[in-house]
Amino acid sequence: MDSATTIVIFGASGDLTSHKLIPALYENFVKKRLPPRTQILGISRTPMSDEAFRKRLLSSSSEVLGKENVASSWSEFAPSVHYYAADVSKEASYPLIEQAVRELEGSNPSRRIYYLALAPELYLHTIEYLGKAGMARPDGGWRRIIIEKPFGRDLTSTRVLNQKLHAVFDESQVYRIDHYLGKETIQNLLVLRFANTIFEPVWNRNFIEHVQITVAEAGGIGSRAGYYETAGVLRDVFQNHLLQLLTLIAMEIPSRFEANTLRDEKVKVLDAVRLPKSDDVEQYSVLGQYQGYHSESGVAPDSRTPTFAALRLNIDNWRWQDVPFYLRSGKAMAAKMSEAVIQFRCPPHMIFDVPRGETLHCNQLVVTVQPDEGIHLTFMTKVPDAGMKLHESNLYFHYRDSYEKIPVLDSYERLLLDAIKGDASLFIRQDEIERAWQIIDPVIEGWSARTASSLLPQYPRGSWGPAEADALLKQEGRSWVNGASLHHDR
Ligand SMILES: NC(=O)c1ccc[n+]([C@@H]2O[C@H](COP(=O)([O-])OP(=O)(O)OC[C@H]3O[C@@H](n4cnc5c(N)ncnc54)[C@H](OP(=O)(O)O)[C@@H]3O)[C@@H](O)[C@H]2O)c1
Fold first, then answer.
1. Is residue 14 within 6 Å of ligand 1 at its C-beta?
2. Taking 80 as the threshold, does the pLDDT of residue 1 lie above it?
3. What's the pLDDT tens digit per position in 20-45?
4. For the chain, how far is it from start to end, CA to CA, in angstroms?
5. Same domain, residue pair 279 and 190
6. 3 state DSSP class of 466
7. Could you read off the pLDDT of 420-451 as tens digits, one per residue?
């Protein structure tokens, strides 16, 4: 008989489980990608029967995937979903959880994933008690643990968490998730760079003038003040998503597409990022807060939590010396949009006239992560029958046009499957996450000293951030590209 595979989700009654994990597991089930005898066991404190748990998940999965898509196979999927009510902060719960898992698995060696879909305050206890109950031991099969972001809130807490983790699990058992890495366009960035020869010769300081990475949210913080007030934008997205995008753009070519070789190259980039200094943060970064943030439910009236940040980083190596990387993210911005803009240098000598009032557009490669996953390359063309008038044109690739019948995969669908297969390529390694905090910590420290006595610059909802962010680039002779992919009609 095949070994059982069990996905034990801690935090089963929560939002992540209902709206991301179960829909992703359901989709994998429908596509017949889950191993035979896969079972899901949800754990949280709310008392619930298996039936009640399944009913609730049917409703949330229908919201996410559409009723008609879920109706077809839910009755086949549902029997593999189970629930056990337990408090993970109590050591005594773990032998009972172990027993509940064993009952599902039978006596053969089994494979298990523990998914921590819990508030981060519960991570340390959960990890320690899993260890004490012997639940991390492979027992002839395997045991893996997936940990959600936020992973730590600074370098010190991250090191503590990593130490506790390694007291129980070997690094090879640990899957630190950043769902950004599960997005198709992020992986396509690797394919674009490493499966084509035309980009590599120009992918360096000789041809690239600067790089911009923007992760913009149109919505405010909604009902997440409890989390956001303690995190702020730098912890929420810079330390993870934005730095991950930076590593994929800046990394050297790994010798193989394999978890450790890939991650070795990413760590080398992070190692080469010049560490920001906390005493001159205003020289290279800007924070902001959207207007009305103080009126959001759960936000302190004098809150200094940044909802926007812009940051210049430099990478000290041969490929990138003197090429600034500008990172920017905010809530309540003009659009929900994530993209990286690779700005190429302008021609060193221009033989064509640029009419007065017009600017020369130098080549840009735009990688859009969302909403409309794709790649644009801008280049100059001659306008027909208009002398030597030039016009900026675009080459487009968009997933929805090219793969109409294949829907773009949800990140969790891909990442959960990778974890089941034991492929950690798209998960964050210990050294990667620690170095990322080392880069972001001084920025947070520098600003927390400054903002103690002054409010943050405000920006209107629906804008591209405070004027100070524009000034940051202007003083360096550049400007932000605001939603390059949004403006181009195809
Ligand atoms: N939601 C997302 O889309 C998303 C995205 C990225 C990362 N994350 C991260 O994922 C984690 C979970 O987020 P979430 O949005 O799902 O939070 P949530 O909706 O607040 O869910 C938290 C879950 O933890 C359970 N829980 C709390 N205390 C417990 C205890 N002592 N013992 C057992 N279970 C306990 C809760 O259930 P009971 O009250 O029934 O015990 C609930 O099921 C967080 O770390 C978050 O930062 C979430």
1. yes
2. no
3. 999 999 999 999 999 999 999 999 99
4. 54
5. yes
6. coil
7. 999 999 999 999 999 999 999 999 999 998 88
Residue 142 sits in the same domain as residue 233: no
Question: Is residue 77 in a domain?
Answer: yes
Q: Whose CA is nearest to atom 18 of ligand 1?
A: 14
Which residues constitute the domain of residue 213?
Answer: 181-487
- Which atom, in ligand 1's list, is nearest to the CA of 10? 34
Summarize pLDDT for 347-379 with one digit per residue, the tens: 999 888 877 777 778 999 999 998 888 899 999
DSSP state letter for 112: E
Instruction: Specify whether the CB–CB gap between 4 and 108 falls below 8 A.
Output: yes
Boundary-marking domain end, from 127, 148, 169: 148
- Read off the tokens for 295: 């009126």
Q: Closest ligand 1 atom to the C-alpha of 46?
A: 40
Quote the ligand 1 centre to 117 CA distance (angstroms). Answer: 5
Mutate to test the pocket of ligand 1, among 8, 44, 53 (most ligand atoms within 8 A of CB): 44
Residues 348 and 209 placed together within one structural domain of the fold: yes
Question: pTM, whole model, 2 decimals?
Answer: 0.94
Same-domain status, 113 and 246: no
Q: What is the pLDDT of residues 116-155, one digit of tens each?
A: 999 999 999 999 999 999 999 998 999 999 999 999 999 9
Contacts of 480 (CB under 8 A, 6+ apart): 212, 214, 326, 328, 464, 469, 470, 473
CA of 229 to the centre of ligand 1 (A): 17
How far is ligand 1, taken at its centre, from the CA of residue 232, in Å? 19
Examine the pLDDT at 239 and tell me if it is beyond 70.
Answer: yes
The residues near 384 (Cβ < 8 Å, ≥ 6 apart) are none
- Residue 226 included in any domain: yes
Q: Say if residue 251 is in the same domain as residue 108.
A: no
Query: Which residue from 8, 10, 15, 96 has its CB within 8 A of the most atoms of ligand 1, so it is best to mutate?
Result: 15
The full length of the chain comes to 490
Is 13 a pocket residue for ligand 1 (Cβ < 6 Å)?
A: yes
